[in-house]
Hints:
The chain folds into two domains: 71 residues, no CATH class; 138 residues. Helices cover 63% and strands 6% of the residues. The longest helix has 36 residues.
Amino acid sequence: MSRKSAKKNIILAFIPLSTTLGIDVEWNKPKDFMDDDAESTWMHKSLMEAEELKLDLECGLLKPKDMPGRIIVEPTSSLIPRTAARRFEKELLAREAALFVERDFTSLCSQLESRLGSCKFEEGLQILAKVKRLKLTKIMLLRNPDCVRTLRNLRYFGKEENQFELIIRKKGSELYEILKKIFNTEQEPDEKFWNDFSEEVKVFNIVTKDLKIFRTALSDQSYLRLLDVKKASTSTTDQLSNN
Length: 243
């Protein structure tokens, strides 16, 4: 009679090209501990390490071959605990939803420019209403600065004081305030926000220039992890060069 594979305490990660990876939380776990507290401390530390490895895999800093054994490529369902599978399913659904939001954002901004350029103001206002309903994130805006610029320019749209142009400028200003709130800078003057945002875009482009397909799959959390690692690496390099 064949023996079923034992479930592993793993965390699942998803990387571009539709690859699922598992990180073994109990990798190299000691057989014995002094007491329950010691085991709990070890498990907590290993879990935190696994979460960091997950982010490193998802932002391209780490490859499965870098940690053979601990990183499991395409783990079978027999190895995956039900709680880990449910968590991963939620993550995939959230990732898919975010991709659709970003796709709609770029498409609507393109349509907006086209409609307003053709003086189709009513259609433009309908598009602005759709943009306002989108749940945008910081990483979406950093990946699409031209869309942010389009919305920013709406504050000065048109030259005539007709009803539609006034409304479009008002709606544009409201949307711009929403974008500022995403960056927690709603209290800052508009131009300062734009200058700071432009600098963040430059940093984003520099940090992600070698990521290729990983760039489009970055979440806000994985980008922060990537940024922290890059900053730490730069700081270490600077310290070594100064010694």
